[in-house]
Design a protein that fits this description.
With 80 residues, the chain is α+β, with helices and mostly antiparallel strands. Helix content is 34%, strand content 19%.
Length: 80
């Protein structure tokens, strides 16, 4: 007779939080920066028609009608 899920069926909250705490946020930011830099390099020579900041992304539209979406860590660092 089963009484429901137990610790062996699903990871506990502590295990999930451990995974979150183990993330290397600086490495994620660096990878995001490199991706954005690569996209911006493809825009070289194009004219920007407009740029908007939405809830979770920045949208840049060029005069040829292309739209570029930038997601990720848009927050500023805490300085130092």
């Amino acid at each position: 007779m089963s009484t429901g899920p137990n610790e062996t069926d699903q990871p506990g909250l502590e295990a999930l939080l451990g995974d979150i705490y183990a993330l290397d946020y600086d490495a994620i930011r660096e990878a995001e920066f490199e991706e954005i830099q690569s996209i911006l390099e493809t825009m070289s020579g194009k004219t920007i028609r407009g740029a908007t900041i939405e809830d979770k992304r920045i949208v840049i539209e060029t005069s040829d009608g292309n739209r570029y979406f930038f997601y990720g860590f848009m927050s500023a660092g805490t300085g130092g």
